[in-house]
Each structure stands twice: as structure tokens, then as C-alpha cells.
Write a structure and sequence with these properties.
Structural class: mainly alpha
Order of helices and strands: HHHHHHHHHHH
Shape: elongated
Length: 286
């Protein structure tokens, strides 16, 4: 076992981005929603602080003079970006477990995984990581080998690895559900902003008709109304651009995580299941 003064090569406490920089972290690639929300709020403040020196520009006006809706759009967008960034960093750290230098199963072709050799692999795992339950790959192997050690059933190991792989995929899907919800919420906020803008513009148009005077006065008043109509759709534009950006980043990151899980499954087949089959075949030949 590693003591506090000697951390293993892959330390979740020191290597996981969220655990290291945000004072705590979700398991595997899951992100703590409260901490990420705080990060999103800080990013919101930074965004509007960056707009402060440009009060007369149209881009700044789009986010500062259109009511509260743009603030909500920016917040949910910032929250989503923080979650995606933290997940990306956490995924990068998890991928390190697949590197050849961290292979915990002896490369000796004569090595066979059996009840009597489980401790060798488990010792290698705990010399490589501080706690295997925080690593997708090593958690699978540790659970399967614990079953082999306790029950001695070689045939069950493959089933356990498959079941754990399915569970990891389910956990991955769940971890993206909040961002998928934001992708739906953000355009709705944009439509709400547009409806509010249209309502205001129509109210102004009614005022123009009630106070109709000279044709020149009507034209001047209608210019304000049509200007309001133009700006009413800006919130929808903001929301659609934000939602599209988040969806693209989500798809790319999710693809990378799916590929990582597939590589973990392949790793377990090559380095665990195949060694077990060798042992089973030898037992059947005796």
C-alpha cells in the first residue's frame, strides 16, 4: 500500500482536474453540478466585465439592453462550457490508464489469471493508482478479479466485465443529461425573449395609432417600433448560436468518451479475458 508521502504514478487526488482545482470531484468523468454552476457564474461575470469597455457597440447592446433573458442565456451557456471543459480534462486523465507503462497484468505470455494469481494483479493495480474505484479501467478489473478470488469461477469474470462495461456506458449517458437539457432550455429562453420583445413592440405600435398625428410623426414613431421588432429576434439568434455551439462540443466530447470506453473493453478482453480462457482451456485438457 502507498503511504501519504509516496503517491502512485496515477493519483486521482492529484491528477483529476476537478479534485485538484475545484476542491472535490465526481467519480470517473462526472462533474459536480454545484461547483460547475459557480464556475458558470464566474464566467458570466467575466463575460459582462469584458463588454463593459464597449457600451456603444451593437454586440454589447445585444447582451446588456435586452432585458434579463440574455443574462440567463449567457449563464446557461457558461455553465455548459464549464461542465464540458471539466469533463474533457477528467477524460484526458482517465485515458492515461490505457498507456502501456501502466499495464497491471504481467506481459509474460506464460502468466495465467487464476484464483492464485489474482493478488499479483491487484498489487500492481494499487501500486499504479491510489484508489481503483475512481478509474474506469481499473475499477472494472478490480471488481472482476475480486469475484474470481472470492468465488474462483473463471467463467463469471467475462460476464462481470460485460456487465460493468454496460454500467459505465449508462453512467456516461447520465453525465451528459444536464447539458442536453441546457441545449433545450437555451433556445426556449431565446424564444421567450423574442415574444417579450414582440409584445413590447406591438404595445408601442398601439400607442402610435392612438396618438396618430401628422404623417411625419407617425413615420418617426414607426421607426422605433420596427427597431424594436428587429432587436426582439436578437435573443433567439443568441440562443440558437449558443445551443448549436454547445451541441457540437457535446457531440465531439461524447464521441471521445465512447471511444475510450470501447478501448477499455478491448483492454479487458486482451489482458484479462484471454488470460482466463487460456487457464480454462488448460483445465479442460487435464
Amino acid at each position: 500500500m502507498n503511504n501519504a508521502n509516496h503517491l502512485p504514478p496515477l493519483s486521482w487526488k492529484k491528477g483529476d482536474f476537478e479534485q485538484r482545482f475545484l476542491g472535490g470531484g465526481g467519480r470517473f468523468t462526472r462533474v459536480n453540478l454545484l461547483r460547475s454552476a459557480v464556475g458558470g457564474a464566474l464566467l458570466l461575470v467575466a463575460f459582462y466585465a469584458a463588454l463593459t469597455p464597449f457600451p456603444g457597440y451593437e454586440v454589447a447592446s445585444m447582451f446588456t439592453e435586452r432585458g434579463l433573458v440574455p443574462y440567463a442565456i449567457v449563464f446557461f451557456t457558461a455553465w455548459s462550457l464549464v461542465i464540458l471543459f471539466v469533463k474533457w480534462r477528467k477524460l484526458k486523465f482517465q485515458m492515461r490508464a490505457l498507456e502501456d507503462r501502466y499495464c497491471v497484468v504481467p506481459r509474460d505470455h506464460g502468466f495465467i489469471l487464476a484464483k492464485g494469481t489474482v493478488d499479483t494483479v491487484k498489487t500492481n493495480i494499487y501500486q499504479t493508482v491510489d484508489d481503483p474505484k475512481y478509474f474506469v479501467l481499473f475499477n472494472r478489473i478490480d471488481i472482476a478479479l475480486s469475484n474470481l478470488k472470492n468465488l474462483g469461477e473463471v467463467g463469471d469474470v467475462d460476464d462481470i466485465l460485460r456487465s460493468q462495461a454496460a454500467h459505465d456506458e449508462s453512467v456516461m449517458e447520465t453525465s451528459y443529461s444536464i447539458i442536453s437539457t441546457f441545449v433545450w432550455v437555451i433556445p426556449v429562453l431565446g424564444f421567450i425573449g423574442t415574444v417579450l420583445g414582440l409584445s413590447e413592440a406591438i404595445g408601442q405600435f398601439g400607442s402610435v395609432l392612438e396618438g396618430a398625428g401628422a404623417i411625419d410623426e407617425i413615420k418617426a414613431s414607426l421607426q422605433n417600433v420596427t427597431g424594436g421588432l428587429a432587436t426582439a429576434f436578437q435573443t433567439t439568434l443568441q440562443a440558437l448560436v449558443a445551443a448549436m455551439t454547445i451541441q457540437l462540443l457535446l457531440a465531439l466530447l461524447k464521441k471521445s468518451e465512447e471511444e475510450f470506453l470501447d478501448e477499455c473493453t478491448e483492454y479487458c478482453v486482451i489482458h484479462v479475458v484471454n488470460r482466463l480462457r487460456m487457464h480454462a482451456n488448460q483445465g479442460s485438457d487435464q
